[in-house]
């Protein structure tokens, strides 16, 4: 097989991957992704030992040990477009020889958990709940650029969603991808976490049905989303990265899920006035669940 061209897999002068500025040895097999770069510092403050800290733009990485387990925490910034960058560079770090630019014959599987903030669409999932994504529904279109994307998607779920939520054909076809069942069961505790479907949007306002000054194309969509159910699945929350992580992980052979703190309830119209202490609790819960 031909090596990958330098224009397709750009590396920096020091041989690190273009955006993350990481070398293969900098990365642990257990990865935590977060949107907000300041959350990397907060999570790393729980580590027993810090090995590596690197940052460029919104991509901040700290690798260290938590209760004897090596973990890399990486910020992605906001949105599924950044997930395209982060997932491709993480996969390149473990599955492509960065010097020869040849794909390695033996593939490594990473464990990826996103810890994020999120908005609930269900009246009975209040602010400060913890929600695990068993499945994610991407309305952003990123996964659709990759060949065989439909092999990791639940087409029947997508068809039912498009019909019952009167989804506009002008937007990309939503893609439904399952999370890693192993990671979901590792992170779930009855009475502590809620499991459900997470909607991943490519915007915070219009794409999540928020109206400020501009009217939106599908004004009743959030009520329809809240009522929608298929094969025992209900949509619980909105955020902006989970489906792209789940979809690219499924295509690349990695394990992934997302766990979110609800900071706004779209059904009730309320929002947290200070979510940071609850984010600390979610981080402690997630780190301990992963260390078990
Ligand atoms: O708190 P983070 O991880 O950034 O996640 C959520 O918050 C951002 C929007 O405010 C989006 O990235 C969304 O997914
Ligand atoms: O409503 C919300 C809250 C956090 N992040 C989102 O993307 N949406």
Automatic annotation (TrEMBL):
Residues 31-271 form the Nucleoside phosphorylase domain. Its EC number is 2.4.2.3. CDD domains: UP_TbUP-like. InterPro entries: Nucleoside_phosphorylase_d (IPR000845), Nucleoside_phosphorylase_sf (IPR035994). It catalyses: uridine + phosphate = alpha-D-ribose 1-phosphate + uracil. Gene3D superfamilies: Nucleoside phosphorylase domain (3.40.50.1580). It holds the Pfam family PNP_UDP_1. PANTHER family: FI09636P-RELATED, URIDINE PHOSPHORYLASE. This is Uridine phosphorylase.
